[in-house]
Specification:
Shape: globular
Oligomer: single chain
Bound molecules: zinc ion
Strand content: 15-25%
Distance between the termini: 24 Å
Radius of gyration: 12 Å
Amino acid sequence: MVKFIQWLMPVNIKDRKMEMPVINQELLDLLRCPVCVKEKKGELEFYQDSWLICTNCDRKYPVWEEIPIMLLDEGDKWQATRKEELPIPPPKPN
Ligand SMILES: [Zn+2]
């Protein structure tokens, strides 16, 4: 699973984007919160086409230019922010 996420994130996504939407139901079914997936389900809610919110720990991962940014730093940064207050679209990840 972790390998899959790492494969998903890097390079070449711009090219893939031309061919198909990066976020679709199939992908959502596969993506999990990297923190929770080890012990719980870590299922993600796709919110406002811009965020993936972990249903276990409430970490929030931005979807930036249709790329899910499944990084711990990002998830931590937005964990305490209420989803209604999340910026849409998300700011560019560092
Ligand atoms: Zn989580």
